[in-house]
Amino acid sequence: MINTLIGDLGHASVIVAFVAAIVSSYAYFMASRQKVIASGDNSWRKLARGAFYVHGAAVMLVIFALFNIIYEHRYEYYYAWSHSSNHLPVHYMISCFWEGQEGSFLLWLFWHVGLGVVLMNTGKKNKVWEAPVMAIFSFVQIFIASMILGVVIGDLKIGSSPFILMRDFMTDAPVFAMDPNFVPKDGTGLNPLLQNYWMVIHPPTLFLGYAATLVPFAFAIAGLWTGKLTEWVKPALPWSHFAAVVLGIGIMMGAYWAYETLNFGGYWNWDPVENAVYIPWLVLVGAIHTMIAYRRGKQGLKASYILVIASFLLILYATFLTRSGILGNASVHSFTDLGLSGQLFTYMAVFAVLAVALLVYNWKKIPTTEKELTTYNGEFWVFIGAAVLCLAGFQVLVTTSIPVYNSFMGFIGIESNAALPADQIAHYTKFQLWAGVGIAILTGVGQLLWWKKSEKGNLTEAFMLPAMLTLLFASLIIVLSKLGVFAETIDNPVYITLLVAALFAVFANLSIILSLLHKKVSLSGGAVAHIGIALMLIGILFSSGYSKIISQNTSGMLYSREFPDEINRDNVLLWRNTAVDMDKYKVSYQGQFQEVKGVPDYVNRELLFPTADEYKALARGPIKVADKVYFDTGDTLELVSPENTYYKVEYKAREGEESFTLYPRAQVNPNMGLLASPDIQRFADKDLYTHVSSVPDPNEEKDWGELKEYEVAAGDTLILNDYVAVFNGIERIEQVPGVELAQGDVAVQADMKILGEKKSYHAHPVLLIKDQMMGRVPEEVADLGLRLTFLNIDTERNRFKIGVNATQKDYIILKAMEKPFINILWIGTIIMSIGFVMAIVRRKEVDSKQAPAPQRNRKAQAA
Amino acid sequence: MKKSHIIGIIVIALAIGIIMTSVGDASTYVSFEEAIERAQDGDETKVHVVGRLKKDAQGHIVGMNYDPLVDPNYFSFTLVDTNRFEQRVVYFNPKPQDFERSEQVVITGNMKQDVFVADKILLKCPSKYVEKEVQQ
User: What is the dihedral of CA A521, A524, A529, A532, to 10 degrees?
Assistant: First the structure.
């Protein structure tokens, strides 16, 4: 039966949330007016708060309703049907919550509610700011809530409701014409690429980052609007740090996920969707720096306004890019166009116009200092740094927006066929690498100048040690590489420049931390974060710049020699059980495995007899790992994900004892083709990254050769396809997997042993008589490419007929590459985050002390 | 001049430089005819071509060749662009799985001698992200 109650409840809650946001926004707006504040009348504020709490409660109800629909498998709802299925474990049900656009908008709404509640209830100072900031918060919520409203006014559809029923979404499907109450038995499931734990944690982190960028923006706008043009920076600063660290971690989670799960062999593809969130992050970091500079020297307020506003507007632009469908062919991530592009554009435009108008109106009133900055001033370099960050962001923005230019030109009638650069990675890298060099040098120079007195003497001293250490380490690394300690020599001048710059950043910031150790280590958050960034740059330099494909096809067999320069030999063919030389390893493909519940290792597919339920299989033999037996023959096994096959690839070092096994994974998905995930062997100094590029189509019928018949007696030896086999005899069996035997049915199996290259195989083809008809159950030995059929018994002469077919052996096409020092990238990310957190904690400390904060800062910094 | 003005000019100059380089790096969607012209003019820049696979009367794909047992890194097929021009395309990588099911194919590369050498293939599979069929 169709349950419309929960959907109606959810839909109604969305409407309540929408209306409550309007009320709250209006009430907070009224509460911010000068008259009201002066009069001390709290009624508007109380109303606004109440409305926001109602809004929050409504949002929670919406979440509850949607989760209930997914959890209870209510497939009459389109969202549950298209994003979940019966077999989905609970933690993936959480992630399918945000697989669809509506769900991810809901996630965003939720985070804003959380942040809003925190803002409303923390900080004494915030009482002054609460009304205007929350007014903007609620105003934003109106727009986001409108995205999932799902209300139709005349011809205009506003929002896309997550609670739409199947029959209302698929009005053309014939099944609903016949039976309007039809409920599908199962959903189409979560996109297989999204079925891992990253899908559970990456989107919430990323969306919290998006949500958090609203806070400094709201403060800035509130400052402009209420005329408190300078005081907003102090409360906004820790929130900016928070937004930057959460957004940064969210982005890097995406990178790590792509590395671990997708098979393009990297962690960053400069895909428009990736770029869309990278740009606002850069601008936000720039904003943080100008705000810090402002707090120290009262310069950079105008810049801070511009950058804080820009970072939020760029988040809206990113939302527009990724969700409006405008990217179309240009991105692998493009979501379907839900018809929301008009709304998204409006959302972005309203805030852009509002913010720019307010800023322009107040521009002259914003205090600026006339004092000229010298190059010996730390703040000067901070501003240069912010400029570099913005230029880097600008560069990515210009190229990534090419599809938007196309659309826009099309809108005004000019045809334009511009496409993104053919080699995106090279294009972006050539700019961003130099931005990285610039940033690295600037963090070093800037930090040293910021913390030391501006006397020349001290300066040279301050720079001396880091500069020397940098040159020392850089030379050491280059020399070691030339001596062959690393896999490749480092002689590319561009890379060397980046290495030197990053090392300088590390040592300069280290020296700052050391000098702060005996004062207040908590002040060194910035230095720690900078070291993190520098390490990330080093990690990227080595893992991308020196990434090496080791699966070069050295077989010498090439299809064509038409284009010797283009020839790409990155993939290698591995026949089952035949070892191939690869770099310093001998690699062999050893078979197909599956994941079985309750067994700690992968189980060979040949041990699994499939049943009608694809999630269950019967054990053909004892399931053992090491020496422990987990299941016995005949037991029913539960398969975790039957559609995924794990290909066992064994690596043995050619010199030495080292050996390891990797299990790259693949599935052939009916909608999406081959989905391969790599397996990675992690070493301290590199990662070995392996994935399958192609497998023989599992859906294609195997081509079995001609049947060869052999007449044998018990104990005979025969040669099957060049393999020696022994026929041991027959025995009667009581059970045949997959066949129901009744009274009077007889089944016998032939016991055969075949000696392969490395081990012997047992085959038991079955001959049975069921319902007085003869049936045969052949057995395949996949490793040898043989199929044995028990054809006949000649009871008089005690001889048996065995039939053998041979087929082409199993193979995989493999690609393997080395990623040197990639761990430094991940370690750098963690260190950067620690630095941010230290800075947030320090700001909170400083702000909560009674003494005037700027004075104290200055004292501590000047010491 | 004030220092900040100098910096400002440098920033603007860099920004203009960025725009110009990006325009130069941007590629275009072209037809095979144009790709051939470019190659003949000595222009080696990479372009994008949108097309469909060549099929026979029964709907089977014609002119596709991938034999991993011989060379896993060689895949060739015939693509028909929007002007109905048929062109042989070579891709030095394994065949993307489910290539046969794609409605539209976007290739990136350039013409070399008589063949289009593709660096990248982007497949547009039917209703990739939106489920439209209800199975009973």
Answer: -60
CA distance A513 to chain B (A): 30
R_g of chain A, CA atoms, integer Å: 33
Which of A525, A524, A529 is closest to A513 using CA atoms?
A524
**What is the pLDDT at residue A164?**
87
Domain boundary residue among A787, A807, A827?
A807
A176 half-sphere exposure, CB direction, 13 A CA radius: 15
On whether residue A352 sits in a domain, the answer given is no
Residue A14, beta-bridge partner list: none
Q: Is A730 helix (H, G, I), strand (E, B) or coil?
A: strand
Nearest-CA distance B57 → chain A (Å): 22
The answer as to whether A181 is a domain residue is yes
What domains are defined for chain B?
28-124 (2.40.50.140)
Same domain, A45 and A153: yes
Residue A753 lies in domain:
708-807
Number of domains in chain A: 3
Residues A717 and A624 in one domain: no
pLDDT recorded at residue A41:
78
Nearest CA in chain A to B129: A336
Q: B80 touching A, CB under 8 A?
A: no
Chain A residue numbers touching B122 (CB-CB < 8 A): 329
Q: Is A339 on the interface with B (CB under 8 A)?
A: no
Q: Determine whether the interchain pair A563/B117 forms a contact, defined as Cβ–Cβ distance below 8 Å.
A: yes
**What is the per-residue pLDDT across A70-83, written as a single tens digit (0 to 9) for each?**
998 888 888 888 88
**What is the chain B residue with the closest CA to A568?**
B92
Is the CB of A566 less than 8 angstroms away from the CB of B123? no
Residue indicated by tokens 């039939």: A803
Residue B89 DSSP code: E
SS3 A611: coil
Chain B contact for A558, CB < 8 A? yes
Contacts of A380 in chain B (CB under 8 A): 3
pTM of the model: 0.88
CA distance A59 to B84: 53
The tens digit of pLDDT for each residue in B25-69 reads 888 888 999 899 988 888 888 899 989 888 888 878 888 888 887
Q: Which residues of chain A have pLDDT under 70?
A: 1, 123-126, 328-338, 453-457, 554-568, 671-672, 698-700, 738, 847-863
**pLDDT the model gives residue A415:** 75
- Residues of chain B found within 8 Å of residue A384, distances taken between Cβ atoms: 7
pLDDT for residue A94? 85
CB pairs below 8 Å between A and B: how many? 149
Q: Domain check: are A65 and A160 in the same one? A: yes
Average pLDDT rounded to a whole number, residues B93-117 = 84
Domain boundary among A174, A190, A206: A190
Task: Identify whether residues A17 and A127 lie together within a single domain.
Answer: yes
Q: Please report whether residue A115 resides in a domain.
A: yes
Are A124 and A24 found together in one domain?
yes
CB interface of A with B, residues 153-192, below 8 Å? 166, 170, 173, 175, 184, 188
Domain identity same for A742 and A603: no
* Tens digits of residue pLDDT in A48-100: 999 999 999 999 999 999 999 999 888 888 888 888 888 888 888 888 888 88
Task: Check CB contact of A402 with chain B, cutoff 8 Å.
Answer: yes
Integer Rg of chain B from CA: 21
A710/A656 Cα distance (integer angstroms): 45
Contacts of B112 in chain A (CB under 8 A): 563, 566
Whether B125 and A422 lie within 8 Å, measured CB to CB: no
Bridge-based pairing of strands B47-53 and A811-820 is: unpaired
Q: Is residue A117 part of a domain?
A: yes
A112 and A24, same structural domain?
yes
Q: Do A562 and B115 touch (CB under 8 A)?
A: yes
Token code pair at residue A567: 């020839």
Of the CA atoms within 13 Å of residue A586, those in its CB half-sphere come to 10
A20 and A167 in a single domain? The answer is yes
